[in-house]
């Protein structure tokens, strides 16, 4: 991947509840850097009313090449919906991915329902 130059590199996410057709608001997300067997916790955030984070998860000097993992706490979110039951099928959804170009925008959306999810590299 080509570098875009400058310091515009960033990591973002967006969580959509495909069962309700709405953004997944107030969903907790943990970000880790992975180095071999070691996981280093970088930050904890919650999604806003639009299912996004108010700021990039990584940007500036924190945006470095390497392996990362986003942990989406879907069980807490899905459990808050009384109609879905007290024991949701999905709990913590880990998505491990690599960043090669620290000047690029990496967007990792999550499409979530009570019984499945999908992700992709967005824009």
Draw up the topology in text.
Elements: E1 10-17, E2 22-23, E3 28-35, E4 38-46, E5 58-59, E6 66-73, H1 74-79, E7 92-99, E8 105-113, E9 116-119
Parallel strand pairs: 1-8
Antiparallel strand pairs: 1-2, 1-5, 3-4, 3-6, 6-7, 8-9
| Proportion of helical residues | under 10%
Strand content: over 45%
Largest sheet: 5 strands, mixed
CATH class: Mainly Beta
Structural class label: mainly beta
- Here the CATH topology equals Immunoglobulin-like
The parts where pLDDT drops under 50 for at least 5 residues are 1-5
Number of separate strands: 9
Q: What's the average pLDDT? A: 90
| Overall radius of gyration | 15 Å
**C-alpha termini separation:** 14 Å
Overall tally of domains: 1
Annotated CATH architecture: Sandwich
The secondary-structure element order is EEEEEEHEEE
Give the oligomer, counting copies of the same chain as homo and different chains as hetero: single chain
Characterize the overall form.
globular
* The named CATH superfamily: Transthyretin/hydroxyisourate hydrolase domain
Q: Given the structure, what is the number of helices?
A: 1
Binding site for substrate: 14, 52, 120
Enzyme class: hydrolase
Subunit structure: Homotetramer.
Organism: Ensifer oleiphilus
């Amino acid at each position: 991947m080509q570098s875009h130059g400058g310091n515009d590199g960033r990591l973002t996410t967006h969580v959509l509840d495909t069962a309700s057709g709405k953004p997944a608001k107030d969903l907790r997300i943990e970000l880790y850097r992975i180095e071999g067997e070691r996981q280093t916790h970088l930050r904890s955030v919650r999604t806003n009313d639009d299912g996004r984070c108010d700021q990039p998860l990584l940007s500036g000097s924190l945006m470095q090449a390497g392996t990362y993992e986003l942990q989406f706490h879907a069980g807490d979110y899905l459990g808050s919906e009384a109609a879905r039951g007290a024991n949701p099928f999905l709990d913590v959804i880990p998505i491990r991915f690599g960043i090669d170009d620290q000047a690029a925008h990496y967007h990792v959306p999550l499409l979530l329902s009570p019984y499945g999810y999908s992700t992709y590299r967005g824009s």
